[in-house]
Design a protein that fits this description.
GO terms for molecular function: acyltransferase activity, transferring groups other than amino-acyl groups. The chain is of the alpha+beta class. It folds into four domains: 273 residues, no CATH class; 98 residues, no CATH class; 168 residues, no CATH class; 121 residues, Beta-lactamase, CATH 3.40.710.10. The chain contains 24 helices and 13 strands. The chain has a six-stranded antiparallel β-sheet, with helices on both faces. Strands 7-9-8 form a three-stranded antiparallel β-sheet. It has a two-stranded antiparallel sheet with strand order 1-4. β2 and β3 form a beta hairpin. α1 crosses α11, α12 packs across α15 and α17 crosses α21. It is elongated.
Amino acid sequence: MPGRDGFLDAIRAVAVIRVVTWHTYGWAPITWVVAAVPAMFFVSGHLLARSFERRSPRVVVADRLRRLLIPYWLFGLVAWSVMAAARQLEHTPETALPWGSLIWWVLPFNDPHGSVWEAGWLAQPLWYVRCLLWLLVLSPLLYRAARRAPRLLIAVLVAATLALEIVYRNGTWRDEAVPNALWRVGDISLYAVFLVLGFVHSRSGEVARGRAFTAALLAVPLALGVALVARPQDGIVNNSHILHLVVGGGWLAVALALRAPIARLASTRGASAVVRGIGRRSLSIYLWHTAAVITTWHLVARLAPLPRGVYSVLLGLGTVAGTLALVAVVGHVEDLAARRAPMALPRRPVLVRATAPVLGIALFALAAGVLLPDTAEPDRPFLAAPLTLAGTFAASTSGASSAATTASTSAESPASPRIPSRAPRVRVAEPQAAATVSSTLPDASTSAVAADDPEPGSDAASPSAEADGLQGVLNRWQSSYGSSGLVVGVSRPGSWEWIGSPYDGGAGGSFDIESVTKTVTAAAAWLLVADGVLDVEGPLPAIDGLPELAARGLTLRQLLEHRSGIPDYHNLESPESLDEQPAVTVVRNALAADSVFAPGGGQDYSSTNYLLVGLVIEARTGRPLDDVLWGRVLDPVGVGAMFSRAGSSIYWPGGGAGGLITDMSGMLAWGSALLRDHQPVGEATWTRMSQLDPNTALGAGAMGLCPCQGGFFWVGHTGGTTALFYDRSDNVLIALRIANGIWGAFEDPFVELVESLRITALRL
């Protein structure tokens, strides 16, 4: 195409492909291969500079805003229509429409939010639109400054990026009014660097090849140094602005050094059509591809288990097909917004023109028809993926799926893809108040705001004028996220405890603590190891009703650490109920299924492991599991009378994996005993239990929460609807029950609630 720069088109095309690949697979090393967003802003800067040289900045900015906002508004209209349809089909708190965020769906100067149901797959990638909008508005000022003092401007922007990241990482800035405000300002300063580099490149022309290669080589040790000194959360480059700056600059230098061969390749007949096509539809691809990713995943997940590698292939093919189909349907809006002739599709064969939209419509119609009316888990948002703890999707006794971190088997069950474009979580530093706290706090149920589970955003869910402290945090969170059955316990062990709920009378009552039961089972197992009754490294004993375990190479440690490779029974077809202990039936069924990996060959959360631990305890001691749990664990720490046992079935086998019942006071009492005082196991055994894998957050009876800079601040355990975590550095213990589940779309809100309660507790 005359007048076009093949090099710039190629850089943008590669960046778009890399973005789609990253959001499809969510594998952290992908972020180290071509820094996509810096490359896109570099291209934008180059093209903007050309336009500023020919037309007035006001005309240029108005033109670019029209090109950006019209496709964005179309996407927003469709996204809201989809969320509204979900609301009509399922009138639940998760599907409540985000009216408070509507203004940002029109003018995205702040990140727009979707409903809990969409789980971020529609809204979270829109941070890029927010950043692009701000930089377009600021571009005339940046362009003038770049013409006068380009080096000084770049130095100032780099320094601002460094300073903002350091302050954000240290947690010394609180941004409750605008969550992640510092991170978002850092986005602007970071990508402004590459926008300005595009300005400079447009004026100065080609960079000397030797200088570009030198810059690229220098970026390698610098990037490694930054990664070692301040490891990015989850190993993702995008989770550190400083690292992103270095990696983005390094890859840009590589591209500039190879400018001539890249331009030649982009001009070849086959590559030219692809490069031009992506360039004409880059915004549409970005806006719509995540919808294709999550829809494809839900369809492919129905086929699990699949032969090794087939899931990844199908997910990739489905994402490409779905994205192409959507872009074929809506992409012409980019042409209308740019006031240019529509992009022509090939005339022959006709099948090529018809396939994309038909395939896209069929794909999304099938998803809606199969998934929306008849969900297997009605409490789980349709688009939601299970919680990611340091890259692993943690499951629970509620039935959430889990993901293998490594694999050496012939079949796989697809892990839920990583929800795209999250800002990294960091801890807010909040010094403890000097005032002495009282030994008791008012019961929250006396200041509750609603009798029944309220709709989010309703008057009943709003905090009263007098609500403050912990109750105020709880009410505000409930108003924002609209969970059901929310009960919270907060304690400074040895000082005070507080139990609250947003509902009248909602703070009382007993409940199944679900997978938090595993902490009790693990404590019993480790005590029996200390007694010499169990061998943590030796072969497992024979258990009536189960196949020979010793020949499988399984050990008790592998079970406790979720390294056995035994699949989670939640992911399998339920076996036929027999006249035997349900745990035996369920474990036998899981042992007959394909392993997730060889014993010791990976780490994958599986409730089956703890069912088997319970059976091992019974086999070695000759006593019922509950006799051991109460006799060795609960009674010795004085909480036995606060606990009871739920009934069991093949659908809810309980045993060592779940089924203990208590109230919120019982949860806090057990948490104080084990997580703070390390009783009844002792310091040495607790160290073994709480040694967490940095990649999965899993230990031998505990798990970590919030893998922020500096490690896991919270240690404890979760269940499908429950959580119990202790922060040793601040002596804060938090227990929660959220009836509609703490995972899925609740990941970030859940961590937000825990951290807000911690900060408030330190002030009391």
